Amino acid sequence: MSDAPQLAHRLRQHTQGEVLFSDADRGRYSTDASIYQQMPVGVLVPRTADDVTNAIDIARDLKVPVLARGGGTSQCGQTTGVALVIDNSKYLRNVLAFDAEARTVMVEPGMVLDHLNAYLKPHGLWFPVDVSTSAQATLGGMAGNNSCGSRSIAYGNMVHNVLGIDAWLADGRVTSFGPQADATGPAQQLGALAASLAAKHREEIERVWPKVMRRVAGYNLDIFCNQSERPYTADGSVNLAHLLVGSEGTLAFTKSLTLALSPLPKAKVLGVVNFPTFHRAMDSAQHIVKLGPTAVELVDRTMIELSLANPAFAPTIRTALVGEPEAILLVEFSGDDRDALKRKLSQLVDLIGTLGLPGAVVQMTDDAPQKNLWEVRKAGLNIMMSLKGDGKPVSFIEDCAVPLEHLADYTAQLTEVFARHGTRGTWYAHASVGTLHVRPILDMRHAGPEGGAAKMRAIADEASALVRRYKGAYSGEHGDGLCRGEWVEWQFGPAITSAFREIKRTFDPQNLFNPGKIIDPPKMDDASLFRFKPDYRVIPIQTTLDWSAWNVQNDAVTEQTTGPGTGGDPAEGFAKAVEMCNNNGHCRKFDAGTMCPSYRVTRDEQHATRGRANTLRLAISGQIGSDGIASDEVHDALDLCVSCKGCKRDCPTGVDMAKMKVEHLHHYKKKHGFSIRDNLIARLPITAPFAAKHPGWFNARNRMPWLAKLGERMFGFSAKRSLPEWRSDTVWATLSKPPTGPVLVGGRALLDAHAAGERVVVLFVDTFNGAFERENVDAAIAVLGAAGYKVHIPRWTPQGDRDERNLCCGRTFLAVGMVEAAKQQAHYLLSALLEFAEAGIDIVGLEPSCLFTLRDEIPAMRLGEEADVVARHAMLIETFLEREEKAGKLDELRAKLKPAASPILVHGHCHQKAFGEMTPTLSLLGLIPDVKPNLIESSCCGMAGAFGYDSKHYEISMQMAELSLLPAVRNSPGAIIVADGTSCRHQIHDGAAREAKHAIRVLAEHLQ
Predict the structure, then answer these.
(1) How wide is the angle at C-alpha 313 spanned by C-alphas 638 and 316, nearest 5°?
(2) Between the CA of residue 724 and those of 693, 704, 772, what are the distances in Å?
(3) Does the pLDDT at position 190 exceed 70?
(4) Nearest CA to 822 among 659, 693, 690?
(5) Which of 8, 129, 399, 788 is 20 to 30 A (C-alpha) from 468?
(6) What is the pTM for the complete model shown?
(7) What is the pLDDT of residues 129-152, one digit of tens each?
(8) Residues near 988 by Cβ (< 8 Å), separated by ≥ 6?
């Protein structure tokens, strides 16, 4: 747009906000969680309400549309547009007023739902519109969509819980919308117009308006003559704020919302009903709701299977299953009396028995298993998007709501529609209110009569006919946006649509706010609006890592995928791996878990996993420059990625940004070259033997501040950091000859002992523990010996070389993009370990980043089957000991442990958390008598290998640590601090002046 430079200039002059107009920044805001993409004119991240006022005035003057945005998780394209995008989520996220007695709160539009509920919880209150994206969804966005949530049968939709909205009108005036009886000024005038239109079309409203609670299409003109199952207000009065709820930012720009709160239920119970067929589950919903549940949620077979395949969700979903059901319903009862709720649960069991399914209900009365299962259900939509291949579940008819008595027939007939078009649907969501989120699997990357767009149109036509037959609502929860906007007139007819248009024109005469939504929308299958437009092409690249597992195609009906490498990706699977991100925004979270550390600190879209994936997708398809994966835009987006692997576990679609960063660095450094600092980091394992002979030289930097400052200027290592201390008594200094003894043995002796049936294990000593903290290695040998195991520490001898060398996983090389050098180190490591793995001997490690490199990156280096064989036998030492304990093999060790004198506080390394390996650490420490180790709910420590030593990353590193880790350490002065990661221990030392210890060392210190 020609006005973009002037718009950017004036915004920088007249606002304090962040003005983002680069191609990469605009590209990151061009999508939401829908299939659409529209490049905005620019982006403003306002710091104050005055910034918004000035931005609206400037945009109006330049005739540039304005688009309000929160978490950007909309599934219909309503937060995409050729406009000035104003992102409220970073700064405009405060509680402005709170009245616990009146149960009301006033918030800014960028406040995230989970954050509000965390604020309210100490007061025994919550905001009960519990959408599945509660960790990312902002209250302003929820009001724009008229969001609903799992428990709407008990609490209603967003519109039922909004008491007032203060908003900017298109002319810049701030107007208060609330009870019509109290309205003054513009609100009174606009309300009078809407009321007159409702009166004029009352007969038509009563005839065509869907009579279900889940109806969010168009504008809420029926607030003047209620048509919903649940009246908008308790006393039947009119609240003009409800005109704005569900308007998708097309009428006004929200400044604040006043919300009605509810008491937190004191107790909840959950009955999980297992059904042999999907149809029986749907048919049963109408009977279950008569018991008065607060939620009845569906999980279908597809979601069950995908959950079972996800290591984060599999243990939880198994607890809910009886046999192999085709569908389950989660039926929740809540209230203040747990005994009464248990009786409700018994009634559910009886009901399901009378329906011919005795023993089909899993009863959950404890809070923890309920919470875990609800987390899986909340992730349901995103889990379903984890199908590999070009075919993906597509959102466009998923919000149709029908009366409960028709639910089973509707779903059965819609399934037949899918079959006629060569696909099938994935189902989940709100059985309690007749809203079944269904997404047929379509390939939106291919055009033509058999392409996804053509099938989408045909399915939508047939689905709409079913919705009309069953007197339902075509848009039941997620809004209209681009994919359902054209169906507004179909739903309401030309007369009411004309009334909607008059409301829009009166509120917004210049069509300033989010044009093209609700009123005069484009066609849902307008290919120019798609994320994958007809001219979408991937720049071919030759990858250094193996991405072939993503380079597949899938069958929409069977969901079977073709073999690795058969998907036709010019980027050898890398592009398809990047495209797994569906923009759901799960990475924009702050609760327990790892993902995404840098976003938690910066709150910048660029530094969320979603922002990075979008940057990569745009780059490799040539939409932001010509350098593709090696572009500066990608490098900037990945700069603060700490390779925590949190996204590998926490992202429901499995986007592995840590591995993507390795691939990027390989191509980027190939183009730009390696710095001295890169070489110092990468070659640390090679430097180690030399440094061990001259530790004083290398440690002088920590003793002399001027050397630290010189090092910062020359190499970029922060002078505010101490560096790890080199030492001469490394592990390898004591292993110059083949070891003999009752515990530490040579390789041949270990193999012989294993063949004789003795307990044996291989201990992989990484560079960090071997060179800097040999106490951890000594502790591992002591603990394993006390448990009755013989231990071998392998080394590598180059052919024709007399000297044995320490083994390295290649982690430091990967960190700077030296992938080929990392492959060489990995080859040496595999050569040393293969014979033990082939013999079935377990290989245990101490440093999580090194051990999981062996398990994760090395198998992706195209080193052959030997990499997979070794990886299958490699594990952290705690995981090994936990397994042996469960097998009853650690009684001897238990007997040798003395009680703990201090509490134990545990910080988990990111890779431990990413691979679900924290339980073994807690279990191992639990062997110590009188100990109940407490886990710090922390994300990344912020050090992340070399990241925190970099002077340009130092401040970010410390901010990450200060989010939860360092405060928790300081608040537990008498506790033993446990951290398995070398860099984690160093961060705790630098940031809290406390010594942290490896778990195995703590265990060894409790040996009698």
Answers:
(1) 155
(2) 15, 15, 7
(3) yes
(4) 659
(5) 129
(6) 0.93
(7) 999 888 899 999 999 999 988 888
(8) 907, 941, 965, 966, 969, 977, 979, 994, 995, 996
